[in-house]
Amino acid sequence: MAPHIVATEAGTKVDLVKVDIPSKKTADGGDFWAINPKGYVPALQLDDGTVLTEVGVICQYLADQKPDSGLIAKAGTMERYHQMEALNFAATEVHKQLGALFNPKMTPEMKEVQMGTIERRLNPLEKSLEGKQYIMGDQFCAADAYLFTVLNWTTPLKVDLGKWPNIKAFMGRVGARPKVQETLKAEGLVK
After folding, report:
1. Which 3 state secondary structure label does DSSP give 43?
2. Domain span at residue 32?
3. Single residue among 68, 97, 122 that ends a domain in this structure
4. C-alpha span between 143 and 91 (Å, rounded)
5. Domain closes at, from 33, 68, 103
6. Kind and range of the H or E run holding 151
7. Which of the chain's termini has less CB crowding within 10 Å, N or C?
8. Is residue 191 part of a domain?
9. What CATH number is attached to the domain comprising 170?
10. DSSP 8-state symbol, 153
């Protein structure tokens, strides 16, 4: 969903193709393995047939196509590196830690250990959001789209964000953005 939010925020039209992950089939019956040999979403197929994978890379690519959108800083600037840092944190520390909770074979003991790791990741995020509207300050960026997407999993996973009021407020702000609401509707997540 993060690349979809970035595309919508940037005003870039993308044609969404749903993928049945277990069968690796696209909505039209195509073989998703042929599009992304890694077998997971998202994948962005460009008009020339080039395929990009990995959420953070796709978000940066989409934002770079519309530099005036403010979704990503200019390449080579320290601001860009800080945004890349936030995208990587979302990918490797928040996404992977929360995503593990979707495993139906996770035992209560494993879940307890995983929740400890999640808490260690959310505590510095909580502190970094103190006094800020978004992860980089007052400007919404591609990293916010990714953080919102993975933190939104806390609802179906029943992870209470109550002990992290800055994160909870961030989720409310991002979730209220008109383009994010548009994306959530297109994804079938809200009516």
Report:
1. strand
2. 2-68
3. 68
4. 10
5. 68
6. helix 142-151
7. C
8. no
9. 1.20.1050.10
10. T
Tens of pLDDT, residue by residue over 140-160, are 999 999 999 999 999 999 999
Per the structure block, which two tokens stand in for 158? 């029943």
In a domain, 102, yes or no: yes
Cβ neighbours, 10 Å, residue 18: 12
Three-state SS for 189? Answer: coil
Identify each DSSP E strand in 51-141 by its residue range: 51-53
**What is the average pLDDT score of the chain?**
94
The partner residues of 45 in beta bridges, in order of sequence, read: 51
Work out whether strand 25-26 and strand 43-45 pair parallel, antiparallel, or are unpaired. Answer: unpaired
The conformation of residue 47, written as its DSSP 8-state character, comes to T
Kind of pairing, strands 19-20 and 25-26? antiparallel
Same-domain pairing of 155 and 93: yes
What are the pLDDT digits (tens) for 158-174?
A: 999 999 999 999 999 99
